[in-house]
Amino acid sequence: MKVGKAKLVIAGTLLVLLQACASHRGLPPAPVSAGVPVEDALADYRIGPGDTLNVMVWRTPEASMTVSVRPDGKITTPLVQDLPATGKTARELARDLEKALSQYVQQPIVTVIVTGFVGPYTEQIRVIGQAAKPQALAYRRGMSLMDVLIAVGGITEFAAGNRANLIRTVDGKQQKYAVRLNDLIKEGDISANVEVRPGDVLIIPESYF
Asked: Model pTM greater than 0.70?
């Protein structure tokens, strides 16, 4: 009786595995080129929640400081509170700060330098599942799957790398692609390396064995 139950459990497990493998094989492979428009790839960096900014006000050290962009997308400096920062370039934010500071400082000159990059949510690459360090990454021009894996420290020993999926929004619709992480990392198969684009989500499932 126990042997019969064990066989049923094993058969059920194998069925699940076969269905999972078939499901992954049914997905189209991720395109080698992410097709990021040139104007998007060359666009200035946009500030996002979690970014670290170095705000420098010329000849006004008391108004200069390093700040973090809050989850609500705003920053606070000694003389300016709750100034929206998300979605702006460093230059645009500097001009906004100059306008706000003009109430307290005569002809302020502000420079903003982004020193810690996260970027707006729509520009991030999210990695979830069996990555060594699952996280959200700021997109960089020409970024590839290899770059993403290096940033997250690779995959865990429990990962089913060749069953990983890349979810991408194309023309307002979500597309799901198959990617081969094991082939890329363990076999050095460069053909498994593909470009990523802003907003991509990499899902790395756990192995059943």
From this structure: yes
